[in-house]
Amino acid sequence: MACRERICGGIELFSTFQARRRMLGNIQFIGQLYKKKMLTERIMHECIVKLLGEVASPEPEDVECLCKLMTTIGQQIDVPKSKSHMEIYFKRIGQLAQNKTLESRLRFMLQDVVDLRRNGWVERRKVHTNPSDLVIHFCRLICLNMRYIR
Fold first, then answer.
1. How far is CA 3 from the centre of its chain?
2. How many CA within 13 A on the CB side of residue 13?
3. 111-114: which pairs have CB atoms within 8 A and are 24 or more residues apart?
4. How far apart (Å, rounded) are the C-alpha atoms in residues 47 and 76?
């Protein structure tokens, strides 16, 4: 029975991971649609408000989706026209980041979004998204490791 319970637990954990990955992928897709001007700014503001939800007892999934969405569209939506909205959002995000009931992982994600905005939506480190960049980076790492082996 213990083996069967372990297998069922593993399957449940895997399906939870898949659902989380799918949810974050959908949020990023929504952000990309906005960036391509296929969704309006008003719709994005409604999404952000919905994801901000309760400051006292936020849903962890909503917080993670909020961070992913703001990272995806922050530069495009943070314009002078919507400055008042953004100030309210980031006041709430700051409050969420101080919420000790949230997992530290989520608090750090929120703080990263605040830092990203403070830095003019320029990421601290370059994220390799181009496959050829990844190959070049990987080859450099192999060459460096080969030097240390010899």
1. 35
2. 6
3. 112/67, 112/71, 113/66, 113/67, 113/70, 113/71, 113/74, 114/90
4. 15
Paired tokens of 125? 């480190």
For the segment 103-149, what is each residue's pLDDT rounded down to a tens digit?
A: 999 999 999 999 999 999 998 776 555 666 667 766 676 766 665 55
Q: What is the rounded CA–CA span in Å between residue 124 and residue 6?
A: 40
In angstroms, the CA 22 to CA 28 distance is 10
Q: What is the dihedral of CA 30, 34, 38, 43, to 10 degrees?
A: 80
Task: Return the structure tokens found at 104.
Answer: 């530290």
Task: Write out the two tokens for 86.
Answer: 């953004």
44: tokens are 């994005």
User: Rounded CA gap, 69 and 75, in Å?
Assistant: 11
pTM above 0.85, yes or no: no
Positive/negative CA dihedral, 127, 131, 133, 135:
positive
Q: Give the orientation angle of helix 83-97 with respect to helix 104-118, to 10 degrees.
A: 150
Q: What is the number of residues in the chain?
A: 150
For residue 56, how far is the Cα from the chain centroid? 21
